[in-house]
């Protein structure tokens, strides 16, 4: 079975540099490199190895879901390259802004269902060291930052990079980061992942052996997190683990969104509303935040938001207070319970109708 390594990031030049450096440590690798041609709204795939370019193809994409569109081409390409059995390793260089999450999920699911092995051996996030802090706290969209994206892709730079770092098995820095940037990456990344500050920190032998921990990665990025989070010891970064074992009042929650979400910090997690039977997910960074319905609860409903920010950018006190004020009071619980039968709750612009099925 040919080892597969996926490389992601938000800076095309950094992604390419990390890909080239990784190739030198892998046995006779082939690279499937993807980029987005924003002028034509096409996905461009180039396959090459040490002997040169093998193919270049442009893929027409009919919809604006970046992760789904990329997954639809990456999975068949990886399987085709693996079946050829001509190389010692396969590197999938995803386009800037694309997460490896969907690719890894489909590989794991197909392997489980049809028994055709397509195992990801490592997911590497390529990050530019000297811009870690501005990239993770910027309120710009990917397009405004100059990252080629599909038409209609309005994702924020900070939320996209944070998600990529959180899912990765290894974060490879290109150039050094300052102490605040390093602490910010450590607060976001999975504790069992690697932070490689030098090329020697991530030798190809580890990637070939396999460092991808699929279940751990899924657990770390889950919308509903039920595990304990590690304590953060940093002079530069603060973190919050906001939990409520009762629903949040929809009106107070809507009013608190600005206080909780506007700023340079990262916020993500699940929300339990008495007007909704589904998991409500809050996810974003630097004020670019998405609120959506995720699906039915698997286990007891809960509200839990994790927040990470820089000490010299904001203080967490107001966020804590705003979250706490959202929870239903004892009197409200006694009067109305945890499930309210209402026609509207004011959150329809984000979550759809209160009786919509997911």
From TrEMBL:
Q: What's the name of the protein?
A: Cobalamin biosynthesis protein CobW
Source species, domain of life: Bacteria
Annotated CobW C-terminal domain residues: 237-327
